[in-house]
Write a structure and sequence with these properties.
With about 375 residues, the protein is an alpha/beta fold. The chain is globular. The protein has 3 domains: about 210 residues, P-loop containing nucleotide triphosphate hydrolases (Rossmann fold, 3-Layer(aba) Sandwich), CATH 3.40.50.300; about 40 residues; about 120 residues, Zinc Finger, Delta Prime, domain 3. Strands 2-3-4-1-5 form a 5-stranded parallel beta sheet, with helices on both faces. About 55% of the residues lie in helices and about 5% in strands.
Length: about 375
């Protein structure tokens, strides 16, 4: 991947190019993004630029053997760490690490480098579990870094979602992140920097990867993923600046409709003071066939509450509503109390966190439904 292949983030590109050109390469970097906003392709473009022997005009050549291997994610000194767990695609007796799932990771990144966390888990076959970065991963990295470089360039360790790293693994890596071997670079990509062990994040040079503009999202969808102009514009309008979110919406229209039906039934039942209807919806949510889908419903509901709030504030034009759902959100904005959205948004975050901790889904969503019923 070359910088020229990435739309947006021009200031970060210039900073990364300057670091490489001057030889003042940070040994540890933290890219903070909203999910699906392009930190991964940006990091890969930087690794390619850093190691390309023929880079020029602020970009890698894209043609030499080094660029070719990095673009295919088979560069010997590029190591990937990402959240994993045991699942349907590994032996039951195995204790999987990132290396176990590396072929599936490569396939997903090459197809869509803007993927979301839930899409990774679906690809790995662990959608019913939470991914973790364990001490086994730290041992693997320490072993790899103790060996001589295979290529004549930088050893690069790319850690995707370090917030999923347990304390033991983080502490194992702390020393090598602080004082890595020569020509070694750590790149951390996070969606929740506040959850990363402070001793790790404080040793990194941080970059905030901002959400893309609607025009930029539309260009990526049209030029890279071959979506039609009208469809790309519609998806860009509801993406919140996340290319990954736009692509998910493009491929999951049926799932979006399911979440919309459940959310609207939940609010209508609460508005009509029909407790039985509200509890019935909570059972349907709890019956979704994976924890990732249950968490995705919470995220969808949070976005929907934001739309309702925007309508309440008279900002319909920037609420990013689809045409077919506008009537519902306008009506819901009239039903809901002024403080409803703020209160329930916090409860949705709480429900998602409880699901992540493997709390019984029926209890979680029954409680959430009760709170919505009482708050509306």
């Amino acid at each position: 991947m070359r910088f020229a292949d990435i739309i947006g983030s021009e200031d970060i590109k210039k900073a990364l190019v300057s670091m490489a050109d001057t030889g003042r390469v940070a040994h540890a970097m933290l890219f903070y993004e909203n999910e699906g906003c392009g930190a991964l392709p940006l990091a890969l473009a930087y690794v390619q630029y850093l190691n390309c022997p023929h880079r020029h005009d602020g970009d890698s050549c894209g043609e030499c053997p080094v660029c070719n291997r990095i673009s295919k994610l088979i560069y010997q000194d590029l190591h990937f760490i990402f959240p994993v767990n045991s699942g349907s695609k590994v032996q039951a007796s195995a204790r999987p690490t990132s290396e176990t799932y590396l072929p599936l990771w490569r396939e997903l990144v090459l197809k869509n480098p803007y993927f979301l966390e839930s899409q990774l888990y679906e690809t790995l076959g662990i959608e019913n579990k939470s991914g973790n970065i364990t001490v086994a991963e730290a041992k693997y990295i320490l072993e790899k870094l103790s060996l001589t470089s295979v290529e004549d360039g930088y050893k690069c360790v790319l850690v995707w979602l370090p917030e999923r790293m347990n304390a033991e693994a983080a502490n194992r890596l702390l020393k090598v992140v602080e004082e890595p071997p020569g020509k070694t670079v750590f790149i951390f990509i996070t969606h929740a920097p506040e959850k990363i062990l402070q001793t790790i994040s404080s040793r990194c040079q941080s970059f905030r990867v901002l959400p893309a503009s609607k025009a930029e999202v539309g260009r990526v969808l049209s030029e890279r993923f071959s979506l039609g102009g009208e469809e790309a514009a519609a998806l860009a309008n509801i993406s919140g600046g996340s290319i990954g979110t736009a692509l998910r919406e493009a491929g999951e229209t049926e799932e979006y409709s399911l979440y919309m039906d459940m959310f609207s039934d939940l609010l209508r039942g609460a508005h009509e003071k029909n407790l039985f209807s509200v509890l019935e919806v909570s059972e349907h949510i709890a019956a979704l066939d994976s924890r990732e889908k249950q968490k995705a419903f919470c995220s969808f509901s949070g976005d929907s509450l934001r739309k309702i709030y925007m309508v309440q504030q008279g900002m319909d034009a920037i609420a990013n509503m689809r045409q077919q759902e506008t009537a519902f959100f306008v009506s819901a904005a009239q039903w809901c109390s002024p403080s409803f959205c703020e209160r329930i948004l916090g409860q949705l975050d709480r429900a998602s966190a409880l699901i992540d901790r493997n709390v019984n889904a029926r209890i979680v969503f029954c409680d959430l439904a009760d709170r919505i019923f009482l708050s509306i």
